[in-house]
Amino acid sequence: MSKRDFGLYLIITNPSVSYAKIARVAVDNNIRYLQLREKELSDREILLAADEIMAVTDGTDTRFVMNDRADLAFLCGADCLHLGQDDIGLLDAKKICGGKVGEFGLSTHNLAQVEDAVRLNPDYIGFGPIFKTPTKKKPDPVTGTVLLQEAIEMAGDIPVVAIGGINAENLRDVLRAGAKNLCMVRYMMDSTYLEERVAETTERMNGYFLFCEGAQK
């Protein structure tokens, strides 16, 4: 893994445990990015959730990521803002955040979008869905692992986060495609055993990376 890669990325969507619990698990497992993606909540509820999460993550190496909303990211003092293809543009988002938000991520769903994202030089790029997923009401077309590998190569030194339908069964396929960073939304959020799943997944990823490094020597 390069210095810019970070491994597991956590997204909070309809979790089975509390926001504070998720934040504590993220901090204890050195998760760099913890994103709040609750599209059914009101603005007030989102800000309250952000406060609950940041009460745990503030002062740690875990960055709190606000999804979509530059205005809410500014108001709560989020560490990072993640933008989708239908959201406000990155340059406008930076104007709204006024330097208060330090990092930005961009979602992409095909290679043309990856190419556009690279020109904007975000802190990381999300790519997917790698596999079929019901997480979103209107999912984008499945990319598969072949396009994922191309996206990673195209992004150069910008970290790419593989996302969409990834679980314990297909994790190795994603790693074999070259993914150093990935997100497993349902696999993590649908379980009350979040801490165990985060630790196990991190261990499997690190083990794979160490194996690959050893094989190259």
Automatic annotation (TrEMBL):
Binds 1 Mg(2+) ion per subunit. Keywords: Magnesium, Metal-binding, Thiamine biosynthesis, Transferase. Its cofactor is Mg(2+). It is an enzyme of class 2 (transferase). Its EC number is 2.5.1.3. It catalyses: 4-methyl-5-(2-phosphooxyethyl)-thiazole + 4-amino-2-methyl-5-(diphosphooxymethyl)pyrimidine + H(+) = thiamine phosphate + diphosphate; 2-[(2R,5Z)-2-carboxy-4-methylthiazol-5(2H)-ylidene]ethyl phosphate + 4-amino-2-methyl-5-(diphosphooxymethyl)pyrimidine + 2 H(+) = thiamine phosphate + CO2 + diphosphate; 2-(2-carboxy-4-methylthiazol-5-yl)ethyl phosphate + 4-amino-2-methyl-5-(diphosphooxymethyl)pyrimidine + 2 H(+) = thiamine phosphate + CO2 + diphosphate. Residues 9-186 form the Thiamine phosphate synthase/TenI domain. It comes from the Archaea. 2-[(2R,5Z)-2-carboxy-4-methylthiazol-5(2H)-ylidene]ethyl phosphate binds at residues 133-135, 165. One of its GO terms (biological process) is thiamine diphosphate biosynthetic process. Pathway: Cofactor biosynthesis; thiamine diphosphate biosynthesis; thiamine phosphate from 4-amino-2-methyl-5-diphosphomethylpyrimidine and 4-methyl-5-(2-phosphoethyl)-thiazole: step 1/1. GO terms for cellular component: cytoplasm. 4-amino-2-methyl-5-(diphosphooxymethyl)pyrimidine binds at residues 35-39, 67, 107, 136. Signal peptide: none annotated. HAMAP family: TMP_synthase (MF_00097). NCBIfam families: thiE (TIGR00693). Belongs to the thiamine-phosphate synthase family. Condenses 4-methyl-5-(beta-hydroxyethyl)thiazole monophosphate (THZ-P) and 2-methyl-4-amino-5-hydroxymethyl pyrimidine pyrophosphate (HMP-PP) to form thiamine monophosphate (TMP). This is Thiamine-phosphate synthase. It comes from Methanogenium marinum.
